[in-house]
Amino acid sequence: MPHISLPEGLPGITSGFAFRPETAKPMRELAEVLLRGPNSLTSGEREMIATFVSDRNDCHFCQASHRAAAAHHLGGNYDLVDAVKRDFDTAPVSPKLKALLAIAAKVQESGTHVITTDIERARTAGATDVEIHDAVLIAAAFCMFNRYVDGLATFTPHDEQAYDQMGQRMANEGYVRRNA
Amino acid sequence: MLPEGLPGIRGPMAFRPETAKPLNELVDVLLRGPHILTRGERELIATYVSAQNDCRYCQTIHGAIAAHHLHGNEDLVVKVKGDPELAPISDKLKALLVIAGKTAESGKAVTAEDVERARQHGATDFEIHDTVLIAAVFCMCNRYVDGLGTWAPDDPEFYRQRAALVAKHGYAASTLQEDQQ
């Protein structure tokens, strides 16, 4: 049961958003810019960073919904997303994305854990400053979203089909929507 | 390669205005918007979480803004950062700071008992919601600031002056104003 009286029937973060629309608006906009805005990283790559961090934070709602969003951006390739979650260093993704995931992993623990050699590794693999910036901020933002969702003990569905549909909407329609 | 001369979060915000806009708006709503908790109390929550996360820039600037709202009481800020249970603050705020501290560890660490304690001291659902979200937001801001290796000034006077500006104009407005100078 949620810690506070949240609107019923809404899963995860959407119940917090409905409870407090004033904070929902900038949170939705932030997710939209970071995950779907113009970027040299694909939305699939950015959603995989979001999924990876949410998984490390043990936030089931966020990791399951963004896992589905990532898969929908990647032509339905759930296997790739799961490989990244399991061990990104052996996953079939680019050396650049591996280096960005390594930075995201450090940010998930603490911003102070990111060291110059982590950044150098990403640069050597071809990452730009915007890509490094966004990898750090996506990881940091999911440390917020995950804590918001679990800190209020929001309702967490455990139905795979529901997450698949959610992910499809997130991938196709984005985060700035009415009644989403 | 962040713009030079801007400390803490303001470097990356100037570097990437597209993300700075919702970030500033979110912090303005939470820390300055219409509320039951005073601005001083909300800044104390932000400061406490930033101290737990060991983010020097965030805990110093938000500590200075908290003190500004609390009639310059820097000693109270130090006491809250040290141990909220021993600080001269309301029982409600103490209970909310426990929730904030747990949220900073992990959202899952917040228990029904923590929330019940806050309720018994008069906290509403709205205040509990915003406490969790302020704590969560600062878990983001702290990681953003430190993850990019930004710099933080040493001089306490810098933070006092900046605090006065933010207290007067808000986060979004004062960032725009100063960066354009």
Structure described in brief:
The complex is a heterodimer of chains A (about 180) and B (about 180). Chain A is an all-alpha fold and about 180 residues long. Helix content of chain A is about 70%, strand content about 0%.
Helix and strand element order of chain B: HHHHHHHHHH
The helix content of chain B is over 70%
Q: Indicate the mean pLDDT of chain A.
A: 96
- Rounded Rg of chain B: 16 Å
Give the domain tally of chain A. 1
Provide the β-strand percentage band of chain B: under 5%
Question: What share of the residues of chain A does DSSP label as strand, in percent?
Answer: under 5%
How many helical elements of chain B? 10
CATH H-level name of chain B... which superfamily? Answer: AhpD-like
Write down how many β-strands of chain A occur, each being a DSSP E stretch of 2 or more residues.
Answer: 0
Question: Based on CA inertia axes, which overall geometry of chain B fits?
Answer: globular
- Per CATH, the class of chain B reads Mainly Alpha
Structural class of chain A: mainly alpha
First-residue to last-residue Cα separation of chain B: 21 Å
CATH fold-level label of chain B: AhpD-like
Average pLDDT taken over every residue of chain B: 94
Ends distance of chain A:
21 Å
What ranges of chain A have pLDDT less than 50 throughout 5 or more consecutive residues?
none
SS-based class of chain B? mainly alpha
Provide the CATH top-level class of chain A.
Mainly Alpha
Protein described:
The complex is a heterodimer of chains A (180) and B (181). By secondary structure, chain A is mostly helical. Chain A has one domain (13-18, 43-173): AhpD-like (Up-down Bundle). Chain A has helices at 13-19, 21-36, 43-56, 60-73, 78-87, 95-109, 116-124, 129-151, 160-173. The longest helix of chain A has 23 residues, at 129-151. Chain A is globular. The longest helix of chain B is centred in the C-terminal third of the chain and has 23 residues, at 125-147. Chain B has helices spanning 10-15, 17-32, 39-52, 56-69, 74-82, 91-105, 112-120, 125-147, 156-169, 171-179. Chain B has a single domain, classed as AhpD-like (Up-down Bundle). Classes of the chains: A mainly alpha (180), B mainly alpha (181). At the A-B interface, α2, α6 and α8 of A face α2, α6 and α8 of B.
